[in-house]
Amino acid sequence: MARVLAVHGIHNTFGTAEQMASTWGPALAGGVSLAGGKLNVDDVAYAAYGDVFRPPGRYLGDDVPMLSADDVDDGLELELLLAWWAAAALVDPGVVPPGARTLGARATARAAVLALSGSRFLARVSERALVWWLKQVTAYFTDGDVRAAVQARFIAAIGEDTRVVVAHSLGSVVAYEALCSHPRPGVSDLVTLGSPLGVAHVVLHRLTPPPIELAGGPVGIWPGGLTRWVNLADHGDFVALQPRLRTVFGDRVTDVMISNGMHAHQVERYLSAPETGAAVMAGLQ
């Protein structure tokens, strides 16, 4: 049985666990190798839930619904888009920073999408794909059936031998909530990659369980059963808007900053980092 369980984030609508195994497995094994260890690709299982978001009907290749900036809804979708815009402008000179004036929801969404099109991370991402990502995140947090289906997929993938969970992007939210609501004594380590868990209001305050509000700010609940939590982030990854999770979830979290080059949020670069390999090795020893 696999001792490592990996879970993906957004942009995997048409992916499967078998497809993850072909790319994630070698990348993670490479990261462990760079850290001085050895990981058999067969020792990694995968939790894939992209089909939960798959639109009904016949779509070919990587097609997504015909969406544009005008389809960005006010509320969570617009809040997340603006947060990405502001964060991207701080780390990427190719992104024009947001202005102070209020344009209205639709005009603001169009301005944000146009600005983000100049970012390194989204250079090859279409407008409709970006909006589709926003709608997937929104669906997870606002649609109880979607959230339950995704959680069930992750929980079912945890095996008796699972020791380490490696979670990327929105997958870190899935893993965190699942390990809080369904703690597994055998799962001792959580490794999060490019995680948005610490983003106040947009993500943090929508978590189940919600953070505890204290005088010094919100404090996230520690998932039951975990011994270690290592969080890796690239300074240019604007999806991980709050890269230091220990400021929210406590000093038991180890935050590690790495460099993924021009593709800050790309999962294979996170997985192949020796820092990720060392974190996985610690959980397997």
How does this model look, in words?
The protein has two domains: 4-53 and 143-284, Rossmann fold, CATH 3.40.50; 69-133, no CATH class. 38% of the residues lie in helices and 13% in strands. Helix 1 crosses helix 9, helix 2 (76-91) crosses helix 4 (127-142) and helix 5 packs across helix 6 (170-181). Helix 7 links the parallel strand 7 and strand 8. The two termini are 16 Å apart. The protein is globular. It has helices spanning 17-34, 76-91, 105-116, 127-142, 144-157, 170-181, 246-249, 267-271, 274-284; strands at 4-7, 44-47, 164-168, 189-193, 212-214, 217-219, 228-234, 253-258. The protein is an alpha/beta fold. It is built from nine helices and eight strands. The chain has a six-stranded parallel beta sheet with strand order 2-1-3-4-7-8, sandwiched between helices.
Largest sheet: 6 strands, parallel
H and E string: EHEHHHHEHEEEEHEHH
Uncertain regions: pLDDT < 50 for 5+ in a row?
Answer: 58-62
Task: State the end-to-end distance.
Answer: 16 Å
Briefly, what CATH class of the largest domain?
Alpha Beta
- Record the strand order, biggest sheet: 2-1-3-4-7-8
Rg over C-alpha atoms, rounded to the nearest angstrom:
18 Å
Overall 3D shape: globular
The CATH architecture of the largest domain comes to: 3-Layer(aba) Sandwich
User: What is the helical fraction, as a range of percent?
Assistant: 25-40%
Output the structural class: alpha/beta
| Average pLDDT number | 89
Number of domains: 2
Return the CATH topology of the largest domain: Rossmann fold
Work out the helix count: 9
The counted number of beta strands is 8
Quaternary arrangement of the chains shown?
single chain
